[in-house]
């Protein structure tokens, strides 16, 4: 249930309470008037940007994690407390309070776990420093490995000498004569058969 649904539900409950109070002769008219006034204020006093999604209050409410639903952002939490906190943030924006002040108040009350990303100070800096150090260390290891590979011939080259690298020597004349004789004998044997 979204932020607007909870507000409408609250307004509806107050309107029903006001109607009951007005119908009950034992209840004073003060209670009825108070309930009507509260429902009107809630209906009209909702920040305009709560519906269109603009303003820092909406953005702050959407970037915080819920302390009541671990692993869920504030808008995704189904707890009524999460909806109340979102409405409170929007109300603080409507009242003109600075975003930094409201965020600091929330973090002081609920802790750093409200942030989707850890802050870059204190122990939170480790979340940014450790991956950077690991990436740099991996790069150094890769460079050292590749430089070591460039200086040594591969094991395949050591087992099979490169034919182009052998010095050229003149062919043996006796071997050439024998090969020619065998070829002639083969050709004459095939021609007769």
Briefly summarize what is shown.
The chain is mainly alpha-helical and 193 residues long. It has helices spanning 3-23, 29-45, 49-52, 56-63, 80-94, 99-110, 126-151, 155-159, 173-192. It starts with a helix and ends with a helix.
**Sheet with most strands:** none
How large is the radius of gyration? 41 Å
Strand content: under 5%
Question: Roughly how many Å apart are the termini?
Answer: 97 Å
Percent of residues in helices comes to 55-70%
Structural class: mainly alpha
What's the total helix number?
9
The count of strands amounts to 0
Mean of residue pLDDT values: 76
- Low-confidence segments, ≥5 residues, pLDDT <50? 47-51
> What string, H for helix and E for strand, traces the elements in order?
HHHHHHHHH
């Amino acid at each position: 249930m979204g932020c607007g649904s909870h507000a409408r539900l609250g307004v509806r409950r107050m309107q029903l309470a006001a109607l009951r109070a007005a119908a009950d002769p034992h209840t004073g008219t003060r209670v009825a008037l108070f309930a009507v006034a509260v429902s009107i204020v809630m209906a009209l006093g909702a920040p305009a940007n709560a519906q269109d999604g603009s303003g820092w209050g909406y953005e702050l409410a959407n970037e915080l994690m819920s302390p009541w639903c671990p692993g869920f952002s504030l808008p995704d939490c189904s707890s009524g407390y999460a909806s109340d906190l979102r409405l409170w943030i929007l109300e603080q924006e409507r009242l003109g309070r600075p975003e930094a002040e409201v965020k600091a108040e929330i973090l002081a009350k609920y802790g750093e776990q409200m942030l989707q990303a850890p802050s870059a100070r204190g122990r939170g800096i480790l979340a940014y420093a450790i991956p950077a150090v690991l990436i740099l260390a991996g790069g150094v290891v890769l460079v050292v490995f590749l430089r070591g590979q460039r200086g040594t011939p591969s094991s395949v080259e050591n087992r099979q000498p490169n034919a182009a690298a052998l010095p050229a020597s003149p062919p043996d004349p006796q071997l050439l004569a024998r090969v020619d004789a065998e070829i002639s004998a083969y050709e004459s044997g095939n021609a007769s058969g």
